[in-house]
Amino acid sequence: MPNISPEELRHLTLDIFKEAGVELAVAERVADHLVDSNLVGMDSHGVLRIPSYIKWLREEQIARDDRIEILQEHRATVLLDAHATFGPMAALRAANLAVNKAREYGIGFVAVRNSSHTGRLGEYVEHIAREGCVGFMCCNAQGAGQVVAAWGGKEPRLSTNPLAWGIPTSGEPMVLDMATSSASEGKIRMKWRRREKLPDGWAISAEGHPVTDPSDFYGPPMGAILSQGHKGYGLALVVDILAGAVSGGGCARPIDHVHTPMNGFVTMAINVELFRELGEFTGAVDDLLAYVKSGAALHPEGKVLIPNELEINEHRRRLVEGIDIDNETWQQIVEAAGTVGIEVELTTDKLRWRSLNSGS
After folding, report:
1. Would residue 25 be called left, alpha or beta, if left means φ above 0 and alpha means ψ between -120 and 50 degrees?
2. What single DSSP character describes residue 227?
3. Contacting residues for 187 by C-beta, under 8 A, at least 6 apart
4. What pLDDT score was predicted for residue 257?
5. Fewer CB within a 10 Å sphere, N or C end of the chain?
6. Residues facing residue 4 across a β-bridge
7. Quick one: 51 and 7 in the same domain?
8. In this predicted structure, what is the pLDDT of residue 193?
9. CA distances from 356 to 16, 23, 102, 224 (A)
10. What is the pTM of this model?
11. Domain of 267, in residue numbers
């Protein structure tokens, strides 16, 4: 299993997208987002996505430049059409617009349609929280990506429909980033590649039987991911309405294209300082989190954690120890690099790559 430093991985990822013809500013944004996802332990949303992104570029399903267009703008709201711009670019733009609106009007609400895969929602709401606002974001696949069964059903009807909140504190923001399904499809893919079993309650086969072998989920025919109970299912419907109906990107419906890279999403920022001083707010949040964490752990060697604590700790560790990438994912990244003219060589002590297009 290769272990690669964050900076090397970032430079390699950037060069892959540059060689694929992606505009520099967009390529930098995408590389930052993917590697940062690995750094916080969200490998399912990290460089694992490079081969899919390169495939979509080759098929001209996503744009190589920034094509984000403002369709409507009112006092506190903005509607954007990303026109297949890379999701990390569109989502950060939406987050910044929401913050600017919140500073002027108290709240900012931005709806976006036709963005490519947005990636890890937690990054964007954390960005909003660092600007002194409460951040919210939710996302759907505009009717495609139907891999999640409705509560009580066995046929896929919804995408994983994630949502995230970012809350300012006096230190690192509290970030809640979750799929409304039992797991994201990316996490199941990671289990499959690592030859690991799925936890009970994650997925069923096409026949509706519980599965723990990822191969039984993928089929063919493909099974379905389960909702996080009836409450997760209810939230998934709300997300589909907000991200799909409000943005105009579309909700789950009978379609003839199961998989596309397109997402719809909404982003909101709430300016805390229009209610009370930011320091008073973060003080109240700090006290709450400290009180919750002061409770006795259920298990002798355990401890009470808050959302984003594991990610913060993992980020610190991986900055020092590097990022582990499973062999199959690494091989697919190397192959994707080759399709754009980059030759990658990984030895025991060094990662090297060169562009066959420029000879460098």
Report:
1. alpha
2. B
3. 44
4. 64
5. C
6. 323
7. yes
8. 86
9. 12, 19, 48, 42
10. 0.95
11. 67-181+227-274
Amino acid 194: pLDDT: 86
Residues facing 268 on adjacent strands:
109, 136
CA distance 98 to 106: 10
Please compute, for residue 287, the number of CA atoms within 13 A of its CA located in the half-sphere on the CB side: 6
Half-sphere exposure of 334 (CA within 13 A, CB side): 15
Ranges of beta strands (E only) in 212-330 are 224-225, 262-271, 323-324
Asked whether 31 and 10 are in contact (CB, 8 A), the reply is yes
Residue type, 352: R
Measure the CA–CA gap between 258 and 237, rounded to whole angstroms.
Answer: 18
Instruction: Please enumerate in sequence order all residues whose Cβ is within 8 A of that of 170, keeping only pairs 6 or more positions apart, or say none.
Output: 279, 282, 283, 286
Span 258-306, pLDDT tens digits: 678 999 999 999 999 999 999 999 999 999 999 999 999 999 999 999 9
CA atoms within 13 A on the CB side of 255: 18
Question: Alpha-carbon distance 17 to 169, whole Å?
Answer: 35
Whichever domain contains 108, its CATH number is 3.30.1370.60
- pLDDT reported for residue 357: 87
List beta partners, residue 176. 165
Rounded CA-CA distance 129/99 in Å is: 9
39 part of a folded domain: yes
Same domain flag for 33 and 76? no
pLDDT value at residue 258: 65
By the 8 A CB rule, do 139 and 121 touch? Answer: yes
One-letter amino acid identity for 125?
Answer: V
pLDDT less than 70: residues of the chain? 257-258, 358-360
Q: Which residue has the tokens 């020092």?
A: 320
71 & 127 share domain: yes
Q: How many domains does the chain have?
A: 2
Token pair of 66, please?
A: 């920034």
Same domain, yes or no, for 261 and 322?
no
pLDDT computed for residue 1 by the predictor: 84
